[in-house]
């Protein structure tokens, strides 16, 4: 079996042209180096050095093999350095997977607090729908999944089963509010939700793969007397539904944090009462596998900072 040290020995001999000096460079006895060179020659099947003179020369076979040995060592050392750098970088990195809406509304405020508490750390967020995020947690490409769960359990019931066994921490609150563009008076919604009416209301829905839509569907299922909603448009992103709502095309259940400014400026108004609001919990799920030190430090910090769930919360600062 080839020993990588034999290749390094040959390179040292080729550089010094002297067994004694090569042995000193390799921190080995002269006899030990000679035996290792002989072992390499036996492995190659041909003499590699010419020992007839005080200044050692390589044989033709040795010259050819030296080129291959030098290239092999260079590639191995480069690969080792890259792997070590990747490992070091991985230990300093915390990887999140989250639905797009949280990347826009939650992480910009939460990530700076994390970095303040953890010091030098690289944070990355991959955006996907909830099943995609769960897949990243399962295959090890994400340390944590940050997602929204409704209090009625509609999202949890339809989320990937693997989340059921994962530990989680609540780190904030969100709400989905039914909103519409206002009418001429600036107060009355163009598309108002009501009961005991046969008038259809234009509805801007989330795409089937969007977990926010699962929560809205659950609410509508519990309100059989609600106005008939006629789906005009669907989108997997809340941003897309907000744009359509601002254009007056229908009612949409939109995150409160995203639309507070629109409501304050009168660009959007509530299309239904408080009973039409969906309360959401922002949760951080972790894998049961051992995480990097930085990721484990974050989890322990979140456990320490977790507030009682009975209290309303903004984002938990680390």
From TrEMBL:
InterPro entries per record: LysR_HTH_N, LysR_subst-bd, WH-like_DNA-bd_sf, WH_DNA-bd_sf
The keyword DNA-binding is assigned to this record: yes
Pfam families: HTH_1, LysR_substrate
Family according to the record: Belongs to the LysR transcriptional regulatory family.
HTH lysR-type domain residues: 2-59
Keywords: DNA-binding, Transcription, Transcription regulation
Name listed for the protein in its UniProt record: LysR substrate-binding domain-containing protein
Signal peptide coordinates: none
Domain of life: Bacteria
SUPFAM superfamilies noted in UniProt: Periplasmic binding protein-like II (SSF53850), Winged helix' DNA-binding domain (SSF46785)
Organism listed in the record: Methyloraptor flagellatus
GO molecular function: DNA-binding transcription factor activity; transcription cis-regulatory region binding
Alphabetical list of CDD domains matching this protein: PBP2_LTTR_substrate (cd05466)
């Amino acid at each position: 079996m080839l020993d990588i040290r034999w290749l390094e020995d040959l390179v040292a001999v080729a550089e010094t042209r002297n067994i004694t000096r090569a042995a000193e460079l390799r921190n080995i006895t002269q006899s030990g180096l000679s035996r290792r060179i002989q072992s390499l020659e036996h492995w190659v099947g041909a003499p590699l050095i010419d020992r007839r003179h005080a200044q050692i020369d390589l044989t033709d076979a040795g010259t050819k093999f030296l080129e291959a040995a030098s290239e092999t060592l260079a590639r191995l050392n480069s690969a080792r350095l890259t792997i070590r750098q990747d490992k070091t970088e991985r230990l300093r990195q915390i990887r999140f997977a989250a639905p797009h809406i949280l990347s826009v509304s939650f992480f910009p405020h939460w990530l700076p607090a994390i970095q303040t508490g953890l010091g030098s750390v690289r944070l990355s967020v991959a955006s996907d729908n909830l099943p995609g995020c769960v897949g990243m947690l399962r295959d090890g490409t994400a340390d944590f999944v940050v997602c929204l769960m409704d209090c009625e359990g509609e999202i949890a019931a339809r989320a990937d089963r693997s989340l059921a066994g994962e530990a989680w921490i609540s780190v904030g609150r969100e709400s989905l509010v039914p909103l519409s563009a206002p009418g001429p008076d600036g107060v009355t919604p163009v598309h108002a939700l009501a009961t005991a009416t046969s008038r259809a209301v234009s509805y801007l829905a989330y795409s089937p793969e969007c977990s926010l839509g699962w929560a809205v569907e659950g609410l509508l299922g519990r309100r059989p007397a609600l106005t008939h909603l006629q789906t005009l448009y669907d989108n997997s992103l809340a941003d897309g539904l907000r744009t359509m709502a601002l254009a007056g095309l229908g009612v949409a259940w939109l995150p409160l944090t995203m639309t507070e400014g629109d409501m304050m400026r009168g660009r959007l108004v509530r299309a239904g009462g408080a009973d039409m609001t969906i309360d959401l919990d922002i949760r951080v799920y972790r894998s049961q596998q051992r995480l990097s030190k930085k990721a484990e430090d974050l989890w322990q910090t979140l456990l320490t900072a977790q507030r009682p769930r009975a209290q309303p919360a903004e984002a938990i600062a680390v």
